[in-house]
Amino acid sequence: MKRLWPMVFLGFTVAALSVGGVLSLVGLPGWGDVVLAAGTIVAVGPAAWWVVSALRAGRLGVDAIAVLALVGTLAVQEYLAGALIAVMLAGGRALEEYAMRRARRDLTALYERAPRRAHRYERDGPRRVDVCEVSRGDLLLVPAGDMVPVDGVVVRCAALLDESALTGEALPVEYPVGESVRSGVVNAGPAFDLRATSTAEESTYAGVVRLARETEADSAPVVRLADRFAAWFLPATLALAGLAWALSGEAVRAVAVLVVATPCPLLLAAPAAIASGLSRTARRGVVVKGGGALETLGRARTLVLDKTGTLTQGRPEVVDIVAADGFCVREVLGLAAAVDRMSSHVLAAAIARAADERGGEPFTAERVHEEAGSGTTGTVDGRLVHVGKAPKGLNSAWMAAQRARAALDSAMTVWVSVDGDVAGVILLRDAVRADAPRTLRRLRSAGIERVVMLTGDRAEVAESVATVLGVDHVLAERTPGQKVAAVREEAARAPTVMVGDGINDAPALAAAQVGVAMGAHGSAASTQAADVVLTTDRLDRLADAMDVARRARRIAVQSAGVGMGLSLVAMFVAALGGLPPAAGALLQEGIDVAVILNALRALRPARGTRLHVDAPTDALLHRFDREHAALRPALDLLREAADALDRPASTTLPLLRHVHDVLTGEILPHEQAEEQRLYPALSRLLGDPEATVTMSRAHAEITRLAARLARHVELAGGDGPKPEQIDDLRACLYGLHAVLTLHFAQEEEAYFSLAGRAE
């Protein structure tokens, strides 16, 4: 009934205006005035109630002007003007209700589609149960087309999931057996089994629903400007109306001033624009807990970011594998992965993942034993393989060199030993997010003037990440309490946004004007403390949210400002006698409708700082990004060949020939395809034929060094490289490794991060 009331009120006032007008036109003006007056009198009640409600809430609402205008038209017998004001008030409320309902449609859909049923395995097979009955550890069946009811781990077969409703990503994502999945996503492939790791109340989607329910538009600071506006606008309106009456002696002029002064467009435009902004952010996988947070996000000037899990992936990745004499990189990685597949350690998972991606030797381990603090040991093809800390008593010059290198790279070391001797070392590091550099550039374009990294990590690690990203200031080795103090200090200077994901970030998120949580993999504490939650594990969604926030705030202020400017002009014209009450009512109605429709522009998508990528170019970006991942082992091979040049020439020749085959058969065709297909598309997209020139120059250098390497292999003949070739050959191999590594990184940051779909 509450939702129907605005339409009922509008219907009655329109009927009164229509019937009264018709009666006046057919020669029954007396009866027409009665009907028009009735419509006016009926409108006084709701308008007076709105004023009383505002006063009870501690606000002086400008709806008081509407009540005075209605009463004034009755007093001076301007019944047509009164009926028009009644329609204007009812129409404004109905239009505002429609605007809010449409603006919140995406948020409403978000919690209305919450999972309600699950298929739980029992003795006689899967049985449909209420999702509230699911407990941790239950084995569930997720049929094709069904929603994942609770958070869990995929078992039996891989899952293909549509995450668009939760994250905004268009394409389904495949999750292999053992991967964790979140509730609220839809099974886009065949049925699969899920082991529940949470209850429905604890699941990811339930958390998103709670955030959506907290979202309100009427709490934004820009909306509350209406209350401050009423403090001077109401007395000014009464003064102008009284002055017009006193100078002219005509009460009708005072009524005309009151008519065009109400209702205030600020009360209608600002909530509609802010609510529209909340809807747009929800579509991009960002839940904003209220209009106040959205409005503040739109005027932020300082950005404070945690490092681990925010600017970086939050999980270690293998960055290099160095093999000792007598071993190769694929063998070292394969041995380590064979043993570590049986371990639950986070580094073990990273090594197993790297073996799958880089093609480690497919070994199988037996009799695996894990010792906390030391590592994992197992038997592989009759050899005792240990993965973890270096064997006690071993400390060669080669090992010292690898430790020094790891320290310079801020990397962790995992030693692989075979039968007590070191076979190699694996270097791991928490890599910078691929979308982080572009996101920070977008945020600076959107108005962020200062970027601060705030982390509890070591200073040298933080500085290395900050150098890559161009951060203005680094605060490292900070405790949670020190993080809070730092955020408060930044907030005292300018409106500040804090972004984090861990439990230790929660106090700092609460201390900022706007706290943003990486909700996809972040802690529940940070999500609860934050004002904004990114439901997908992509930092660029923050830039999208800021684009929406700034646009919504700009449209709200613009709509209200233009509307009130027009109202003020109309008030002066009415005071001078140039605008009778009936015409003024029609004019004010037009102003209100115009500002609300303008406010609804915030619902429409806008480019903002995001570069729109067409579908064919997007497909090319993803194709070459996947090829980069497949070519990573080739980069390792280049370095391995360079390191092996100190060995006997006859043993290095097969490796050099293999490197040459990989270059000519895989790397160079990839670079040529980029040059012929990707770069022309990017030049058109960026609107600059020179945009890819520097990358083309890198292609030319790669081709030159590859040709130089081919010449060395030819000169080596069948006996291997000659002594006089070694130095230049080593420089050639290291040069190729350096250029390709840098070139890959540049392309991934500058180009592949433009892709619109998830990694």
Which descriptors apply to this entry?
elongated, six-stranded antiparallel sheet, alpha+beta, 26 helices, seven-stranded mixed sheet, 58% helix, Four Helix Bundle (Hemerythrin (Met), subunit A), 22 strands, 759 residues, Calcium-transporting ATPase, cytoplasmic transduction domain A
Question: What does this protein structure show overall?
Answer:
Residues 215-219 have low confidence and may be disordered. With 759 residues, the chain is α+β, with helices and mostly antiparallel strands. The two termini are 46 Å apart. Helix 5 (105-112) packs antiparallel against helix 7, helix 10 (265-283) packs antiparallel against helix 21 and helix 21 (540-575) packs antiparallel against helix 22 (581-599). The chain is built from 26 helices and 22 strands. The longest helix has 38 residues, at 649-686. Among the domains are: 5-104 and 216-274 and 551-603, no CATH class; 115-204, Calcium-transporting ATPase, cytoplasmic transduction domain A; 615-754, Four Helix Bundle (Hemerythrin (Met), subunit A) (Up-down Bundle), CATH 1.20.120.
